[in-house]
Amino acid sequence: MARRLSQSVPAGPLHSVLYMPASNRRALEKARSLKADAIILDLEDAVAPAMKAAARGAIREALGPDGLLSGLRVVLRINGLDTDFGADDVAALTYAPRWPDAVLVPKVSSPDDLARVGAAMRRAGAPGDLALWAMIETPAAILNLRDIVSAAPETGLACLVVGANDIAKETRMRVSPGRAALVPLLSSIVVAARAHGLAVLDAVYNAIGDADGFAAECAQGRDLGFDGKTLIHPSQIAAAKAAFAPSADEIAEAEAIVAAFALPENARAGAISLDGRMVERLHLAIAEQILESR
Ligand SMILES: CC(C)(COP(=O)(O)OP(=O)(O)OC[C@H]1O[C@@H](n2cnc3c(N)ncnc32)[C@H](O)[C@@H]1OP(=O)(O)O)[C@@H](O)C(=O)NCCC(=O)NCCSC(=O)C[C@H](O)C(=O)O
Ligand SMILES: [Mg+2]
């Protein structure tokens, strides 16, 4: 029976979340040295059909106690259960030495898609509280966002991940610099996630060699409210961390707000004046979020 990931694997920010094709041994070998906040081990689009079986074997090996991914936060992206590969992906986990921290379900269209994966996982021996992450990348998912996030307590949904490549394919939207066409959808996805306390990750940036474009898109994602960005190449990790982690100034300001509300004279205050501006308890909550996201 597969065992769950050790509780000692640290939780923490999701500023930089790197996809790795499970079939790419060289990538897996580098995983521990890269210091991404989490790894998405991909069995779906980055793995050719002829390589799926070998990739499942590599996952079982990599998840072992001395495996290439031991000690890392690992999310496994399976193929959809409506494909030729999804059922075998789930079955492969039955024989894995441990469960990943979460399973990422591609091309989710409704809460039922997540419920079906959860049920299949439990039949394969997964713990009842195994977290599911959902790719939001189809027009149906956008239309059904409210239902998908509302059902999170039942389905175990913990995080939404934007799939801009599939959104572009399905909608015929053109994703240009600045992502003008995509921004309304991005905002909807962030709002849906926040309404139900879920994490939410921005889409990948395909132009690996364009560091300036990537930095601009990270800044945009941060301003839209995302927790972090999904990545396709190690060269993107540092810039994503720099964009999504709070700056030194933001940390100093947050610490000042927390310290001010901790003063005995402010114990009953709803709003105080700090450095010439009004600060309310909602700003204290924001400050605490900032300090937690370091
Ligand atoms: C895009 C790549 C195929 C490019 O690979 P490569 O040509 O090998 O790049 P480099 O030569 O620049 O690589 C330099 C070294 O870095 C390692 N490397 C590269 N990518 C990764 C990675 N993702 N993780 C770990 N290590 C990586 C190389 O092995 C080189 O190492 P070394 O030999 O020591 O020098 C490749 O980057 C890649 O496969 N990226 C991930 C692709 C992927 O997973 N795609 C699926 C997710 S994207 C998506 O579909 C999102 C969503 O669904 C949507 O719809 O939008
Ligand atoms: Mg996709």
Overview of this protein structure:
The protein has 294 residues and is α/β, with parallel strands linked by helices. The chain folds into two domains: 16-244, Alpha-Beta Barrel (TIM Barrel); 248-292, no CATH class. It is 44% helix and 16% strand. The protein contains 13 helices and ten strands. It has helices spanning 25-34, 52-62, 86-94, 111-123, 139-143, 145-150, 152-155, 164-171, 183-195, 211-224, 237-244, 248-262, 281-292, and strands at 16-21, 38-42, 74-77, 102-105, 131-136, 157-162, 199-202, 228-231, 271-274, 277-280. The strands form two sheets. Strands 1-2-3-4-5-6-7-8 form an eight-stranded parallel beta barrel, surrounded by five helices. A two-stranded antiparallel ribbon has the order 9-10. Strand 1, helix 1 and strand 2 (38-42) form a beta-alpha-beta unit. It binds ligand LIB3CWND and magnesium ion.
